[in-house]
């Protein structure tokens, strides 16, 4: 009776756990259907994610059947052959050896492993060895502590923290191939609904590809601990229609003109920016600022967030960021320049002109 009661208790816990898991999966699926900004692994929106999701469901089904059979037999044995008050205390007759059973529990697991291996190998090959069709978009992704740099070599510009790619029509695929590099330590690029995670390793470029099937915003995360602000190294991928993507590219290709009319405050802010160490870290295309340590600021105000997705890109937040980056991201490698309040206002006014 002791064994039977223990098994019944464990069974109730397992059933509760399974119910909670199914409820969570249902909630995730519903949230993925309602919002394109979900990080839901149960709602893939790209061919690589579809393949990985299908493989995971297949493996889960196979292992679930194995679990059900093994657990069912254990439960049956625990209840059927439990100790009873009138049991004979003598050891029962022992029977050894069964060629049929030995063969079955050797061959069947081997066949299951072979099936899982071949299925996984097929998916890995489809994802990692995909061909690049005509019209492929190429982006170089560089991980920094703690932000993302995106280079578009086909179009000749650099941006940061917000990846833009065109939607891929299954009839005329327009995939985006990403070359993944690291500027310092290990990072990991992961947007769950678009593809699996791939590491960025110093001096060892990796690659991956995505072909989003629907426009919208897709969120991700650096999935490899890379330092103090690893948790705030967020990913934002904007999937645009082909026309919207073309307009975005044209806007990003524009440079900042030195003769652009500026207000007196913004003009003084540009002078402060160019006379401090800001130009050593940041680049503003068309100006003397050509730094590569920090994010490119040429079109800073075209981005919805700052600090790699940590906070909305508003004038107030931008001012706080310029004044003291540690207020948003303690451990950030951007130092406080110890500017006066007046200089902070002026630099902020200048940055607000960078659209």
Report on this model:
28% of the residues are buried. A hairpin with a 2-residue loop joins β1 and β2. The strands form three sheets. A five-stranded mixed beta sheet has the order 3-2-1-5-8. Strands 4-10-9-6-7 form a five-stranded mixed beta sheet. It is α+β, with helices and mostly antiparallel strands. It has helices spanning 2-34, 47-80, 99-128, 242-252, 264-275, 278-281, 315-323, 341-351, and strands at 137-144, 147-152, 157-160, 162-166, 176-182, 187-190, 198-200, 206-210, 216-222, 234-240, 305-306, 311-312. It folds into three domains: 2-84 and 96-128, Helix Hairpins (Orthogonal Bundle); 137-252, Immunoglobulin-like; 264-351, Cupredoxins -  blue copper proteins (Immunoglobulin-like). It has eight helices and twelve strands. The protein is 41% helix and 17% strand.
CATH class categorisation of the largest domain: Mainly Alpha
N- to C-terminal distance: 74 Å
* Portion in helices: 40-55%
Task: Pick out the low-confidence regions.
Answer: 1-11, 13-36
Strand-residue proportion = 15-25%
Strand arrangement within the widest β-sheet reads: 3-2-1-5-8
Q: Which shape, going by the Cα principal axes? A: elongated
Based on the structure given, which CATH architecture of the largest domain is correct? Orthogonal Bundle
What is the β-strand count?
12
Please work out how many helical segments DSSP would assign: 8
**Structural domains: how many:** 3
- Largest sheet: number of strands, sense, barrel closure: 5 strands, mixed
Structural class category? alpha+beta
CATH fold type of the largest domain: Helix Hairpins
What is the succession of H and E elements?
Answer: HHHEEEEEEEEEEHHHEEHH
Q: What is the averaged pLDDT score?
A: 88
Radius of gyration: 28 Å
């Amino acid at each position: 009776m002791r064994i039977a009661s223990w098994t019944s208790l464990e069974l109730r816990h397992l059933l509760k756990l399974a119910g909670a898991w199914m409820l969570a999966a249902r909630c995730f699926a519903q949230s993925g259907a309602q919002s394109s900004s979900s990080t839901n692994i149960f709602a893939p929106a790209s061919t690589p994610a579809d393949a990985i999701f299908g493989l995971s469901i297949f493996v889960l089904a196979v292992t679930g059947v194995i679990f059900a059979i093994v657990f069912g037999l254990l439960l049956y044995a625990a209840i059927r052959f439990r100790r009873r008050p009138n049991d004979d205390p003598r050891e029962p007759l022992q029977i050894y050896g069964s060629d049929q059973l030995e063969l079955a529990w050797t061959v069947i697991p081997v066949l299951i492993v072979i099936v899982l291996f071949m299925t996984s190998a097929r998916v890995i090959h489809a994802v990692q060895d995909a061909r690049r069709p005509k019209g492929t978009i190429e982006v170089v992704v560089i991980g920094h502590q703690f932000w993302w740099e995106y280079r578009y070599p086909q179009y000749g510009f650099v941006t940061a923290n917000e990846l833009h790619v065109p939607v891929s029509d299954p009839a005329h695929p327009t995939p985006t191939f990403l070359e993944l590099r690291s500027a310092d330590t290990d990072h990991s690029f992961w947007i769950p609904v678009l593809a699996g995670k791939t590491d960025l390793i110093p001096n060892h470029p990796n690659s991956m590809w995505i072909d989003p099937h629907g426009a919208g915003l897709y969120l991700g995360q650096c999935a490899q601990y890379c330092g103090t602000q690893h948790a705030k190294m967020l990913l934002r991928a904007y999937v645009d229609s082909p026309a919207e993507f073309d307009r975005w590219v044209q806007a990003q290709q524009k440079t900042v003109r030195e003769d652009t009319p500026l207000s007196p405050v913004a003009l003084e802010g540009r002078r402060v920016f160019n006379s401090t160490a800001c130009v050593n870290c940041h680049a503003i295309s068309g100006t003397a600022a050509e730094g590569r340590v920090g994010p490119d600021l040429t079109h800073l105000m075209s981005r919805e967030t700052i600090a790699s997705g940590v906070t909305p890109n508003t004038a107030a937040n931008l001012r706080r960021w310029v004044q003291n980056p540690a207020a948003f991201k303690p451990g950030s490698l951007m130092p406080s320049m110890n500017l006066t309040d007046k200089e902070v206002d002026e630099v902020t006014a200048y940055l607000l002109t960078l659209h």
